[in-house]
């Protein structure tokens, strides 16, 4: 029991010592904590004051930035409005540009057409001038009335005037030749203002005639009727009379003489005269008389074309 009491006393004493040490330690810690707390309180007050100042500055800066932001927002809205207006204007300008481009293309196309037409007109004008110069140098009567010969036949515009036993020329061709011959004498008289006496030459194609007291044909159907109808002969004699009147009017104006002389119903030269009538005549002599007549007409045509004043 004493041993136990001593053991308890030793244990309690150790415990008290241990507790006393812990108490001192706790007191020391508490003192340290109070110092640290005092320092913290002092630091928090200073720091809080500084933070408040910083917060005020930040709030003032924030207010200023918000003001600037509001200004920027308003400016942005204004710029956006202007941008929208400019975009609309840009679209309108693009439409106008497209319209102007299309119109410009149309004008260029039209201009190209006008230039092409102008070039064509210039070419046509040059061609017309060239043809005019050719025409000025051209004997129009010789061009319209081509008198030539084909063997024993005299021809006018490729129609043979006359008949031969060995060359059975159709009467339609002979009538056409007489029509061209009548038209030539009629045209020469009109070109020179000559008026025939007693007769009038009426060109009417293959049915031309001489108008006098009666109508005298320069055409025939041939056949048996030709031998008892003398009007065709009278028509040819009357035509030869008209030709003599016209040739005489030319010879009176100068020293020009035609190669063949006309004496009533005959035409020829020193070698002989040939009748223009078919009755009591051979086809050879009749055809030769017609050929001489065409030669005189060709000479008359040349004289008139050479002396006719230009208009």
Q: What can you see in these coordinates?
A:
This protein is mainly alpha-helical and 311 residues long. Helix content is 68%, strand content 10%. It contains six helices and nine strands; from the N terminus they run ααβββαβββααβββα. The chain has helices spanning 2-136, 140-144, 171-192, 225-228, 231-251, 283-307; strands at residues 147-150, 153-156, 159-161, 200-202, 209-211, 215-217, 261-263, 266-269, 272-275. The strands form three sheets. Strands 1-2-3 form a three-stranded antiparallel sheet. A hairpin with a 2-residue loop joins β7 and β8 (266-269). The longest helix is centred in the N-terminal third of the chain and has 135 residues, at 2-136. The radius of gyration is 68 Å and the shape is rod-shaped.
Shape: rod-shaped
Taking the sheet with the most strands, its summary is: 3 strands, antiparallel
List low-confidence stretches. none
Strand element count? 9
**Number of helical regions:** 6
Oligomer: single chain
Beta fraction of the residues?
5-15%
């Amino acid at each position: 029991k004493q041993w136990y009491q001593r053991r308890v006393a030793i244990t309690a004493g150790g415990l008290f010592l241990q507790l006393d040490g812990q108490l001192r330690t706790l007191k020391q810690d508490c003192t340290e904590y109070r110092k640290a707390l005092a320092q913290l309180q002092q630091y928090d007050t200073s720091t809080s004051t500084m933070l408040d100042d910083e917060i005020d500055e930040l709030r003032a800066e924030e207010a200023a930035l918000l003001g600037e932001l509001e200004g920027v927002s308003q400016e942005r809205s204004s710029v956006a409005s202007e941008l929208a207006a400019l975009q609309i204007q840009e679209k309108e300008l693009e439409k106008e540009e497209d319209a102007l481009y299309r119109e410009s293309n149309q004008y260029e196309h039209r201009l190209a057409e006008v230039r092409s037409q102008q070039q064509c007109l210039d070419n046509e004008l040059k061609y017309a001038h060239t043809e005019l110069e050719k025409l000025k140098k051209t004997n129009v009567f010789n061009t319209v009335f081509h008198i030539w010969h084909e063997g024993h036949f005299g021809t006018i515009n490729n129609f043979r005037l006359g008949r031969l036993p060995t060359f059975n020329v159709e009467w339609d061709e002979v009538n056409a030749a007489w029509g061209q011959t009548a038209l030539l004498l009629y045209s020469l008289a009109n070109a020179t203002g000559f008026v025939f006496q007693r007769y009038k030459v009426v060109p009417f194609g293959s049915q031309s005639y001489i108008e006098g007291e009666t109508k005298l044909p320069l055409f025939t159907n041939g056949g048996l009727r030709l031998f008892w109808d003398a009007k065709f002969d009278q028509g040819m004699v009357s035509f030869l009379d008209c030709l003599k009147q016209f040739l005489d009017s030319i010879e009176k104006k100068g020293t020009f003489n035609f190669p063949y002389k006309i004496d009533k119903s005959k035409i020829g030269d020193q070698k002989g005269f040939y009748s223009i009538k078919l009755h009591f005549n051979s086809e050879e002599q009749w055809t030769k008389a017609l050929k001489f007549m065409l030669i005189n007409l060709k000479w008359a045509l040349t004289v008139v074309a050479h002396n006719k004043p230009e208009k």
